[in-house]
Amino acid sequence: MTLTTARTAPRVVLLNPGPVNTHERVKAAIGSPDECHREPEAQELLATVARKVTAVSGGGDTHAAVLLTGSGTAALEAAVSSVVPADGRLLVLDNGHYGERLLKIAEVHRIPVLRLEFGWARPIDLDAVDRALAADPGITHVAAVHHETSTGMLNPVGELGRLVARHGRSLLVDAISSLGAEDLDVVADHVDWCIGTANKCLEGLPGISFVVAPRERFEQLADVPGRTFYLDLHAHYTSQVGSRTPQFTPALQVLRALDEALDLTAAEGVAARRKRYTERADAIRAGLLERGVDLLLPPEHRASSITNAHLSNGMTYDELHDGLKQHGYVIYATQEKSAGVFRLANMGQLTADDITGFFAAYDEVVRRHTTPRSPSSPAPAEAAAVTR
Ligand SMILES: *Cc1c(COP(=O)(O)O)cnc(C)c1O
């Protein structure tokens, strides 16, 4: 068999927070035979993937999952726009870019919304949440981000869930960058609406996202007015779970890849994956600190899959990014409110050697940047031609 050029291109090490480097079995799954989404085997695929994402979220038979074709934000928008009743109100807990996104989605759909803004890289103040809920009985739902990917902060989903449940309100959690690696259990943590995606810590390919909730909650959505046609969660639930058929054409091959990724997740185990990610993150953090690079967050707030660090050596993000890219490593910028910070994610199939290789490349990029150029030293274009 001859492979195309794109398939034989050298592996790039992805240190961005998804899409991630995937297992060979996941990549192979998208080469599955062409198929029709209304046939029994496709229906079986949807039911199987739904069962597996429910299980990885901690849900049992009382729970169901709705699968959507679209990136994580599609499932977020489906949940936010579908669950708050006409006379309800949403409290958004915001300590980063993705907290802000929850707010923006609610605003677009003209959902009455209150925002508790804690500031970027600042922890959620649970007492403030407690007071806000006590003060306003009109709040029906609370939305929060589990792993705030913009800063790498892991928010305390269990404590938050217990607090929201004590007030008798419903909790919606963006678990897009935590599910598959961080400790999360929708039952124990009182998460009513759990939103996840295929291509981060579940290590699938981009294109499928999902919402996991108790069946009862999905059924109660019949009383909530629809705010969108394509992302109407109740309509998807009725079709996918009630009639075992997708409402619209799903990305079947991406679902096949996710099915494979979920099997790999189950075989490894979420706790073991977290341990693997933590080892990579520890190596990244130790390597950065050794080189005098400052990290954004104190250790107790850090998730296992991202490290935010301050740019150093007088380098701009673009200089660092472009230099590393030439060596085959892709790093990630951060969003507007933490200028001067870059991100190294360690989600996906990364080996210890990938991290060692990254630091060799990093040192080379820094060395070239900080060594004054003399007429006898190689021209930048020549020097840049090093590949892995
Ligand atoms: C990645 C991410 C999203 C969704 O981004 P998409 O580009 O739509 O996949 C949402 N929330 C968080 C916390 C994320 O990390």
From TrEMBL:
Enzyme class label: transferase
Domain called Aminotransferase class V: residue spans: 37-318
GO-annotated molecular function: transaminase activity
Disordered: annotated span: 369-388
Pfam families cross-referenced by the UniProt entry: Aminotran_5 (PF00266)
E.C. code: 2.6.1.37
Reactions the enzyme catalyzes: (2-aminoethyl)phosphonate + pyruvate = phosphonoacetaldehyde + L-alanine
Classification via InterPro entries: Aminotrans_V_dom (IPR000192), NH2EtPonate_pyrv_transaminase (IPR012703), PyrdxlP-dep_Trfase (IPR015424), PyrdxlP-dep_Trfase_major (IPR015421), PyrdxlP-dep_Trfase_small (IPR015422), SP_NH2Trfase/AEP_transaminase (IPR024169)
Keyword Transferase in record: yes
Name the record gives this protein: 2-aminoethylphosphonate--pyruvate transaminase
UniProt keyword terms in alphabetical order: Aminotransferase, Pyridoxal phosphate, Pyruvate, Transferase
Cofactor: pyridoxal 5'-phosphate
Skewed-composition ranges (Low complexity): 374-388
